[in-house]
Amino acid sequence: MKVFVTGSTGFVGNHVLSALLEVGHQVRALVRPGSEYKLKRPDELEIVNGAVGETATLVQGIEGCDAVIHLVGIIRAFPARNITFERLHTEATASVIAAAKETSVSRLLHMSALGARQDGPTPYLRTKFAAEELVRESGLDYTIFRPSLIFGRGGEAIQMFSAMVAKRVVPIIGDGQYQFQPVSVTTVAQGFEKSLALEAAKEQTLDVGGPDNVTFDEIMDTVARVMGKTITKVHVPVFPLRLATSALQHAPGYPLTTDQITMLLEGSTCDEKPFYELTGLSPISLEQTLREAIW
Known about the structure:
Elements: E1 2-6, H1 11-22, E2 26-31, E3 46-49, H2 55-62, E4 67-70, H3 85-102, E5 107-111, H4 123-136, E6 141-147, E7 150-151, H5 156-166, E8 169-173, E9 179-180, E10 183-184, H6 185-195, E11 204-208, E12 214-215, H7 216-227, E13 232-236, H8 238-248, H9 258-266, H10 273-279, H11 286-294
Parallel strand pairs: 1-2, 1-4, 2-3, 4-5, 5-6, 6-11, 7-10, 8-13
Antiparallel strand pairs: 9-12
Helix pairs in contact: 1-6, 2-3, 3-4, 5-7, 7-11
């Protein structure tokens, strides 16, 4: 199968490309000029230079393919640089759908996020849901994936958490009892690949989580155990942190936004069983996922 992939240079994107290549798919990757160095296996790909908002480029890329995998997304907006949730989530998805229709490619696999909903508390979640609705109403043979936290080698979350643990004193926002179902990036990538040709996956919205429902405190404890470290967790009160973040979030280098705090405290859990039953994949435990990511 020949597959067109957006968001190919990202953490998840590179793993999806590898999952496709490993089983013999031909892959055409959309890459912003200058970002080619981020690709792990560039010599095995057909590269189309351009941006996801360029209709002519999308049409050129999708022409002759059997399916589209749309992975583009951001976790933080920078409006001054025209990097917004509306543009990169909703408008980009509309452009991909339009190009797929123009080239008569009917299969679309779309990356969303667990917790996406119309009344979500942040623009990230609301625009992810708006993009989902465009996909569901497109008339294409779609599958939507909604993952919880994705962990794996090279991922920003793992790099951040392991750096925190290495310092042995780990700040935790609030009480640390908000819950997640961290999922291996390998599972997510293979889920995309295995769903490509599955009739049962069409017109499905699949929540994707790992087998372990854990608190944030437990995630950090597991990271420390895998790294062989003893840590002291310091729980930071939410209200003063939110006030400080509101004032500082636009400052260069400040690591948080108030929206990210909101989504962290909300947590991210699901019924993961339908995803595994459909794809035939075996769940990977949090500890195994971390061992594969960190070592």
